[in-house]
User: Fold this.
Amino acid sequence: MRIDALKYFKNRLKWSDTKIINTLHLPSDTINAWFKKGIVSINNSVLQPNIQAVIHLLAIHRSLEAMFTDPIQQRMWLSTFHPELNVIPEKLMSESSDGLIFIRHYLDYVGERGA
Assistant:
């Protein structure tokens, strides 16, 4: 898998490598190797947790792109407390992989509703 989408996400939302590492819950060596090689290594047909984390993050970005064309609004959505979630999405995503998955599912749900 090419790293272009992850680079686009990083640049669009102005996220640091550290923020991406913390959100994906992966070792910095893994992320740094991906950026250096320009690809996310997929070793077999079973999607490993690290690959799944990247897919969840990119799905979150896709949903935010559909909701807001302005990256400032996307960053604001991620960094603002949402009463319906009772959390700041970035904070929840950085706490655990389950938080990342929860935000992805929430945005999928909101997108399906057309909200």
Observations:
- Residues 95 and 105 are 16 Å apart (CA to CA).
- Residues 4-113 form one domain.
- DSSP finds seven helices and no strands in the chain.
